[in-house]
Amino acid sequence: MEFLFKQHLKDTVQKPLLERFAHLADAEPSLDSLAAFQEEALKEMVAYAYEHSPFYHEKMSQAGIKPEDIQSLADLAKMPFTIKDELRGDPWKLLACDKKDISIVSVSTGTTGGEEIYIMYSWGDHYLTDSPGHPKLFNLKSGDICINALPYEMSSAGMSFHKVFSEVQQATVVNVGKGGAYSTPEKIVQVMADLQPTAFITSPSYAITLAEKAAEASIDIKGMPIRKMWLTGEGCSDAFRKRVEKIWDTRANFHYGSLECGVLGMECDDHAGYHIPLGLVILEVVDPKTGEVLEPGEIGEIVATCLLRFNTPLIRYRTQDLGYIDPEPCSCGLPFPRFFLRGRLVDHLTICGVNFSPFYLEEFLMRQPEVGNWYQFVIKKRNNEQLKIRAELAQGVEPTPQLADKLASKMEFATGVPCEFEFVTKLARPGVKTVRVVQEEGE
Ligand SMILES: [Zn+2]
Hints:
Bound molecules: zinc ion
CATH topology of the largest domain: Rossmann fold
Oligomer: single chain
Strand content: 15-25%
């Protein structure tokens, strides 16, 4: 929180609000004081959106809502949702400022299809978004050397973390990126060998790709002084994370966010769910069908309201991710409530009429020591009465029919659906995003 309230901002629209709450910077803020801040920020942000954003003015008018109707956090439920498809089309539509005040534009990666989504920030919005929320969650310091192997091009990921690591935490950032014009896995591991980083951020699958390249080049990654690693950009099971931690010999915390919303949650070292950065965002969990707000502990769709984006507001955005909120205190001592993810609505697979998150299946698969780090769940288009798992085997493991049967029955026992295994020597390594689920024609 400290960052939000102590930095000297230019004359941004959020400045008076942050100055009124400057006292939050000094001590460990209580949940009550954070709730008071959220309430004020919500009221101001909604009023600003109504006045300055034609998109939200229209939306609120259609729902019969005026800014004065939003007086408390509970009133947020009166506001209409914003959905992904509304962000497509006119690139400038969300703006609550002049076009000339936009300082950065990012573009959706298109992995979910459809027209591009442009997410824009004014300088003030950009500067404030993605701050860590609490120093314990991103505890870098001056002298840390952080390898940032997230995409810098189009995406907001590389830039966002770059800003937080270098500006907020005064660490040294190495912008190796991921898959850019000059950025190859071979070159990144060489840079890491030369600079001996103390921190590292990338996606789960790219962490494996880089480790493989390091092994090919006889670069000792376990000997590097990396004391902290963050994984983000694609989902991953805890079992897969444990593999990454073992390979890199460090602690790896998940970070959850999206192009549209920015940061939404960060794991602490206790790996007990994502802490919600209360200074930046309000998260709700709603029934995906009815839109009704659910109680803590109930699983539903995560809905995000960004509190400090005044010039480019995003209110009650439906993330299409499923999860639940746990308000109980965390063992790490941080007061921020946590949420747990349960996969993406769009990624769920239906096999034998049963709905699965791919990460639920991955959890069981990655617990099998014979299975390597690369796999695909193959879904047959016509006849998906069986889950086919195409996988590499761990080094030195022989691909025998007996092993395929053994693994298939283990997976079937864990998931309740019939499984079959196809062993391959090497699956293609992904360039940008890993594809874990592939559709093929059925017999
Ligand atoms: Zn914690």
